[in-house]
Amino acid sequence: MTALVTTVHNILNAVIPVMISLGVVYFVWGVVQYVIADAEEAKKTGKDRIIYGIIGLAVIVSLWGLVNILVTTFGLGGTAPTVAQSGVCTIGNTFATLANYVTCIIGSAAIPLLFALAVLVFVWGVVKFFFINYAEEAKRTEGRQFMVWGIIALTVMLCVWGLVGILGSTFGITTSVLPHTNTGEQ
Known about the structure:
Layout: H1 2-36, H2 40-74, H3 95-130, H4 137-171
């Protein structure tokens, strides 16, 4: 039993990021289809995709949570997927440590805040479009604009993040979050 749970846990660790990405893409696809569709049948299909995307994400996260609880509660081994966390940002007396401090603050606080704000703008657009005064066409148009700008912001940030990764690997720069300078401290 221990080997089975550990094997399932390790498989989930490898597959969870892909499954969550696919669930989010399916959800966003449904929202976009619902927003731009003219025919009622297409709107119904978009609405169904939204619902199934949310259900799929809930099932994925629940399954991961259940296995993670079993593994941690009973000490069955393996490691749970974790969100990468950077260390504490410290400032030193040299320019290099100051530069590292600035990049640490940007990577630890500013970038996650921008991603969170973009997601919040998108979710606010969904709420305005589907729930708040959904009968008024002006409010629906405003909600649609929020969704579009949220998706644009997320797309631009992901593209820049990917470009930084490509440039980092091309020029041999470590870009775990942001490039760091060599402070000479070990």
